[in-house]
Amino acid sequence: QAKPPEDWLKDRWQAAKGMSGVPIPGEHWLSIDLGTSGQLLSRVVIDFETACAKAYVLETADAEAGPWRMLDTIKAWKSKNLKTEEHGGHHVIHTIVPLEKTWQAGRFVRARFTHLATMWGVSVYRLRLFGKPP
Predict the structure, then answer these.
(1) Peptide bond preceding 133: is omega within 30 degrees of 0, i.e. cis?
(2) Residue 47: which of 82, 12, 16, 81 has the closest Cα?
(3) Predicted confidence (pLDDT) per residue in 26-84, tens digit
(4) Could you tell me the CA-to-CA distances from 112 to 15, 33, 53 in Å, in that order?
(5) How far apart are CA 124 and CA 52, in angstroms?
(6) Alpha-carbon distance 27 to 113, whole Å?
(7) DSSP string of the chain?
(8) How does pLDDT run across 74-129, given as a tens digit for each residue?
(9) Is residue 96 a contact partner of residue 82, using CB atoms and an 8 Å limit?
(10) Please, are residues 46 and 94 in contact by the beta-carbon 8 Å criterion?
């Protein structure tokens, strides 16, 4: 089993103060610029560290400043379109698929984290989007 990396600034995004994992108060988000609007998303995969979110909103917008439109609300304890896997004790992977066939995305897609699952904030190794161009 691989040891977790020592330098948290180089290998992941996190909403916590340093390696101590003290959460930074408030909601936080991670966004991706797709370069163009109209992508048809069929799957979102978020590779969290153990410090993951138990609830979050997937949103899209045509401009970075918004307005943001909800694609889905994810609640780890009840979302039927969420599959959760744990790997190696340091990764919690959420795979989300639309309840319909696809989501139509604007140029920007973000995961807005609303509730923490642990006392250590939120830490993300990768946010990946899968789908087709318009």
Answers:
(1) no
(2) 12
(3) 889 999 999 999 999 999 999 998 889 999 999 999 999 999 999 999 999 889 999 99
(4) 12, 15, 10
(5) 8
(6) 6
(7) -PPPPS-HHHH-EEEEEGGGTEEPSS-EEEEEE-SSS--EEEEEEEEE-SS-EEEEEEEEESSTT---EEEEEEETTT-TTEEEEEETTTEEEEEE--SSS-EE--SEEEEEEEEESSTT-EEEEEEEEEEE--
(8) 999 889 999 999 887 788 999 999 998 999 999 999 999 999 998 888 999 999 99
(9) yes
(10) yes
Q: Which two tokens stand for residue 21?
A: 């994992």
Query: Which single residue is written with the structure tokens 């039927």?
Result: 80
pLDDT at residue 3 tops 60: no
Contact 118, 52 (CB under 8 A): yes
Q: Bridge partners of 86?
A: 92
Instruction: Look at the chain and count its residues.
Output: 134
CA distance 100 to 40: 11
Among residues 14, 9, 40, the alpha carbon closest in space to that of 29 is found at: 14
